[in-house]
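step: validate -> pass
step: tokenize input -> pass
step: predict -> running
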Amino acid sequence: MPRYVSFEADTELNGNTALAFLKNIRHDNIVDILKKHGMDNIDPTAWYPLQSVLNIMNDIYETSDASTNFVSIGIAAAQLGIENLPPQMANATLDQLLMAYPAVYQQRHRGGDPGEIAVKKVDDSHYIITMRVPYPDDVFYGVMYGYVRHFRPQDKRFSLRYDPDLPRREDGGENTVVHVHVT
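step: predict -> pass
step: emit ->
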């Protein structure tokens, strides 16, 4: 049975987000997998069955450098997202971006349940992101890293860490929880 499975068969992902497969810095490591799945030429205006995207990720999981590839794909997805944010979000604060991100995630999918993301602001320097998504955890680690890196105050450092006290979805947990600290 595949490791990454869509929650509903009819769920689709927009092509602009799927472009992360082609635009990430580790693209050369996964090009043969993309060709195998017919995703080596992605139309940013098209919609792709989410399970087809997850099938690629299932194959990437079998590679020796899967985690690095997944994080790179996530960072590329964030960069594509940043480039396509509505004008009113171009100069958003990190707080505004993170609080809006659950809706942004939903807008990148259609036709079925893509899962959900919740963001809780603990204080001005700590956010907790809870994710129930069908993607590899490291893809969304990369997505969050890319957004936080871009939207954090430029004089601030940041870190992202999986919650050490909760099992991640990939380890049988109900959700994956990431803590974002900006100092």
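step: describe -> The two ends are 42 Å apart (CA to CA).
step: cleanup -> pass
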